[in-house]
Amino acid sequence: MSDFHQGGHVATLHNLRINTADDLNRELNAFTATRKVTLILPSLFSELEGDALPNILDELNKVDFINRIVIGLDRADEEQFRYARKFFSRLKADHVVLWNDGPRLRAVDERLKALELSPSEPGKGRNVWFCMGYTIARADSAVVAVHDCDVVTYTAEMLARLIYPVANPTFPYQMSKGFYPRVAEGKLNGRVSRLLVSPIIHAMSKVLGQRDYLDFLADFRYPLAGEFAMRTSILPDMRIPSDWGLEIGLLSEAWRNLSPRSVCQVEVSDRYDHKHQDLSQEDASKGLSRMSVDICKALYRKLAADGTVFSEEIFRSIKATYYRGALDLIETYYNDARMNGLHVDRHSEEAAVEMFASNIMQAGQVFLDNPMETPFIPNWSRVHAADPDIIASLMRAVAEDLEEFPV
Predict the structure, then answer these.
(1) pTM metric for this prediction
(2) Dihedral sign, CA of 324, 295, 237, 305?
């Protein structure tokens, strides 16, 4: 049962287990008769071969409130794109597959590179950005939602609860962010959120002093959730990171562009599990190690943009404060897990905290060594200003791919 807690900066919409999924669907069908919804699915080709995505498609076929599904397909050759077209053809809703590695979309990307507007590196952020551009080009949706393709506990109700706050015309929310417990197979998961994001936000508040931005982030129950929905009108001005700091970057953009009262978080599930990343302690370019560095850099960049001055000494203080606070949290998480019959490996938790502490300094050094770095992908308003034909070219490229490779 939910606890009714409200943090103060963003509204928390709980699941009080009274409305059923059918109740939500009836209301959403009424809302979306005039407020069309687009769902973006950023997908690696490898996810088409996993266990999660087939179930996700089955669940999506249970709902009628989705107007279009835009699938961004990464790491796929021509044969794999053909397979993907057939794989997604089981969807009842209107859908389109963006072949991000195909020659036509690569040609669009080359035009962006010539204007110095191309995403700097491949990844989820780049995938979502191109899907957002396509959605803007179609100009027929009032709401856009995004979620990952590796959720093994996915249900249609998760999507309904995620979309409801921004689809309901009587609500003020421009963005909703999903949250849920990260529990699976008798274990407490969500290490990066529990052991890095929460304690580093508190550490920075202690070292740097009170910051409204940090208070805003601290209100989110699960800031790294990949499930969010937005009013389409805010998409053209969203600048998102191309690296693994996407979720923090989106929250930062919400803080920059929107009133906190127009942002909410919504409880979308009782249980949630997806593909787990390795810690990758030996290779900082992979797994949770790389993710932690990118998240820290995203936090530093935002605070610097708001006038915070960083130095090696400040990063050392943040690391020391973080380390002590994170170790204390391990005890709390252990007790919480134990009381709920779950397992927490204290040794692996402390190893993760030690790696994150090291990466706080590494990210700080990268930040200091590259003061002119521009990691955010330009927003689509700027792209349109630089080349008004780019969005139309993106639509043509996608349409020609679908025509050349029919199901």
Answers:
(1) 0.93
(2) positive
